[in-house]
Amino acid sequence: MVRQIKILIVEDEMIIAAKISMYIEQMGYSVAGIIPSGKEAIDYCRDNPPDILLLDINLRSEIDGIEAAKSILTEHDIPIIYLTANSDDYNFERAKTTKPFAFISKPIKKIDLERSLKLVIERLFEKSDNTTARDNRTIIMSDRIFIRHKDAMLKILLEEIEYLEADRSYCKVCTHEAKYTLSNTLKALEEKIKDDRI
Known about the structure:
This protein has helices at 14-26, 38-47, 65-75, 89-96, 110-127, 131-135, 186-192; strands at 3-4, 6-10, 30-35, 52-56, 80-84, 102-105, 138-140, 144-149, 152-157, 161-167, 170-175, 179-182. The model is unreliable at 129-136 (pLDDT under 50). The two termini are 15 Å apart. The longest helix has 18 residues, at 110-127. Helix 2 runs parallel beside helix 3. It folds into two domains: 3-126, 3-Layer(aba) Sandwich (Rossmann fold); 129-192, CATH 2.40.50. It is α/β, with parallel strands linked by helices.
């Protein structure tokens, strides 16, 4: 099953979280959940790592957003976008140690969120050392690939790929539900996807 990019919102102000959630869905992404505390975010990400994490720095809980990010990043490499109403130097320096992809100041504007999410996705492309995959809008990770399909980024878990099919200088990724044509050769894709199940 092909999935949209999942974004987890960690925000203790529910009105702000609901607004962010609405923006995310309008942009064509999926909201993995809304969580109000750092500890709950750590627990959630342990079993259900999202693709992107929107994280308020100043959570009113025992663990702030930066400490939650540090803990989450020990187990999962998840891109983080910090949300903050207070951009003091101390918290900025602390947050920098987690290598966030972006900072968004409150009140959140839809255009700022949209641009930050696009930057995260572009940085994911850059992270892939396969230039062919990057140029053709395919991101290959250890357990999933992201492909551009109809102006949206779709996530396909490797375990959901039934087979890959060569088609000259293209290849097709075939799942139970659909086939997606990529501008990668089958050989280039297989070299990046190191999964014996495919």
